[in-house]
């Protein structure tokens, strides 16, 4: 059955796929899979290669390629989940590629329902690198992950034994925010401020200033480039203005 699934998703253009047993998945800060999908047995994790657009000096071009990839990975997840339910007769659940996220308590901010990095590691799709991203043995850092949870009992793939990360430090020195200075921990606030300037923090800052401004100042603020960018991100969704740690890692670039 694994080979049927593998062949199917690779035929759709997925770059790699790995299988993990839900009981082997360990992401200490994320909720238990059982609380999301009682009876789930297997995680089918897919890797999608990012285009060279992530190196573009234009944030719009880099971001557009990511939006394309997220759309592709989301629809692939949905197609796979439909196949598992419809053809293999087992309930399936798609995992969000990035959002929606649960913001109900402060501890949950920045923690997804399912950590796709931990899922990718346990499904044999890579290991954590110095940048706290998962490095795929063939495609390097430049992959994003998506997953489907299922009640099917499928044999897990073997984890990658040797980390492809050479500890060259390029991801750390290329981070404009200094968010990777401490090994093993991304400084989320520093990264967010730089990589999502028009995200939640940017929005709160804008509207706080707006509330304190005079009506003349408010009119000017609503015609400012800052407001236009905030307006755009409100309907596009999360927008990443930084791909530096992702793009600087030489591993993905040396492999075809
Ligand atoms: C919230 C989020 C963010 C937040 C918070 C990141 C964070 N610290 O978790 C912010 C906005 C900062 C962020 C930034 C980025 N993100 Co992001 N993000 C997510 C999201 C939606 C949830 C992550 C989560 O649940 N974190 C909470 C838990 C898992 O983290 P944690 O328990 O504290 O574990 C951390 C550390 O303990 C450490 N760690 C844990 N175990 C181990 C083991 C070893 C050996 C080491 C060294 C470290 C280590 O690394 C973990 C991450 O910091 C995921 C999608 C998803 N559903 O998983 C994407 C995701 C992690 N992001 C991704 C990417 C690519 C990025 C960015 C490059 C932005 C961009 N342009 O795309 C940057 C990279 C920042 C970096 N170098 O860490 C990809 C990673 C792909 C990959 N190859 O690994 C993901 C998986 C999205 C996807 N669908 O592929 N992200
Ligand atoms: S996405 Fe940018 S700001 Fe965030 S850790 Fe990577 S290089 Fe640093
Ligand atoms: S840039 Fe260098 S240190 Fe950073 S993850 Fe890649 S190989 Fe490892």
Describe the structure.
This protein is of the alpha+beta class and 256 residues long. The protein has two domains: 2-163, no CATH class; 197-236, no CATH class. The protein has eleven helices and six strands. The chain has helices at residues 2-12, 33-36, 59-86, 116-122, 170-174, 188-195, 200-212, 215-222, 225-236, 244-248, 251-254; strands spanning 16-21, 42-49, 92-94, 127-128, 134-135, 143-150. A four-stranded antiparallel beta sheet has the order 1-2-6-3, sandwiched between helices. A hairpin with a 5-residue loop joins strand 4 and strand 5 (134-135). The longest helix has 28 residues, at 59-86. The structure holds cobalamin and iron/sulfur cluster (SF4) (2 copies).
User: Which spans of ≥5 residues are poorly predicted at pLDDT below 50?
Assistant: none
Helix content: 40-55%
Number of domain modules:
2
Q: Tell me the number of helical segments per DSSP (H or I, 4 or more residues long).
A: 11
What's the number of extended β-strand segments? 6
Distance between the ends: 29 Å
β-strand percent reads: 5-15%
pLDDT averaged residue by residue: 94
Short description:
With 256 residues, this protein is an alpha+beta fold.
Topology of this protein?
Layout (H helix, E strand, L loop, with lengths): L1 H11 L3 E6 L11 H4 L5 E8 L9 H28 L5 E3 L21 H7 L4 E2 L5 E2 L7 E8 L19 H5 L13 H8 L4 H13 L2 H8 L2 H12 L7 H5 L2 H4 L2
Antiparallel strand pairs: 1-2, 2-6, 3-6, 4-5
């Amino acid at each position: 059955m694994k080979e049927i699934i593998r062949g199917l998703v690779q035929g759709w253009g997925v770059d790699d796929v790995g299988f993990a047993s839900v009981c082997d998945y360990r992401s200490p800060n994320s909720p238990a899979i059982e609380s999301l999908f009682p009876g789930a047995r297997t995680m089918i994790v897919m890797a999608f290669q990012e285009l060279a657009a992530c190196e573009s000096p234009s944030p719009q071009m880099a971001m557009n390629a990511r939006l394309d990839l997220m759309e592709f990975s989301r629809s692939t997840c949905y197609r796979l989940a439909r196949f598992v339910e419809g053809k293999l007769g087992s309930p399936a659940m798609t995992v969000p590629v990035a959002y929606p996220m649960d913001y109900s308590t402060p501890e949950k901010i920045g923690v997804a329902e399912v950590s796709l990095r931990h899922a990718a590691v346990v499904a044999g799709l890579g290991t954590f690198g110095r940048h706290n991203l998962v490095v795929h043995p063939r495609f390097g850092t430049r992959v994003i992950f998506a997953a489907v949870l299922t009640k099917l009992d499928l044999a897990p793939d073997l984890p990658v034994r040797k980390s492809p990360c050479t500890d060259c430090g390029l991801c750390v020195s290329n981070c404009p925010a200094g968010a990777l200075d401490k090994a093993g921990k991304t400084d989320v606030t520093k990264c967010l401020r730089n990589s999502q300037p028009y995200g939640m923090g940017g929005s709160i800052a804008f509207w706080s200033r707006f509330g304190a401004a005079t009506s003349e100042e408010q009119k000017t603020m609503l015609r400012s480039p800052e407001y236009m960018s905030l307006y755009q991100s409100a309907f596009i969704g999360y927008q990443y203005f930084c791909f530096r740690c992702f793009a600087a890692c030489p591993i993905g670039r040396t492999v075809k």
